Amino acid sequence: SQWGEENLQALSIQEGEDVTMNCSYKTYTTVVQWYRQKSGKGPAQLILIRSNEREKRSGRLRATLDTSSQSSSLSITGTLATDTAVYFCATDVGDNSKLIWGLGTSLVVNP
Amino acid sequence: EAAVTQSPRSKVAVTGGKVTLSCHQTNNHDYMYWYRQDTGHGLRLIHYSYVADSTEKGDIPDGYKASRPSQENFSLILELASLSQTAVYFCASSGRDISYEQYFGPGTRLTVL
After folding, report:
1. Each residue's pLDDT tens digit, A12-38
2. Cα separation of A78 and B38, whole Å?
């Protein structure tokens, strides 16, 4: 498997708290993407971070990538109830033809 | 706005029956994908396609066939549906640019009885 066991997670927090989700991967990648899947919907990309970047920000989101430890994280600051979703990380396989998906982190933000 | 549509949105099928799930994209993307998602699992790739009239096996192709008759359309076919194929199926598309982003449809919930 591309992913470590720690990728399968379930988190429950209160609105306003900050949260960080982690994933690790086992093979070389040029890109890590983070997707969010809300209940009853397909996943949608949140942020993409390339292997030559250590950090990428987009609004309340911050992604990091550590190629030496082959790990990535996604942080959300000031969570909202609408952030409740499953969050996936995904890596490429050396070209952009297909992605390898992590198992996801279920995040519940309680109002 | 990228658009991927799937039909039907839900379907109940009988064991041993034939099921066809359809996907249509208006993104002008070359790549299309079929995934299944089971409760408690992530996305698993069934088949994908780089170009019309050609399909490739993904990670779990057994029991599924795929057809890409045009750039816009990609179908997933279950010739002999089985109980184990009960799942939510997602279609996605992506372009040949360097963004790697996949655009997903809303999913089809398939129940095999």
Report:
1. 999 999 999 998 888 778 889 999 999
2. 30
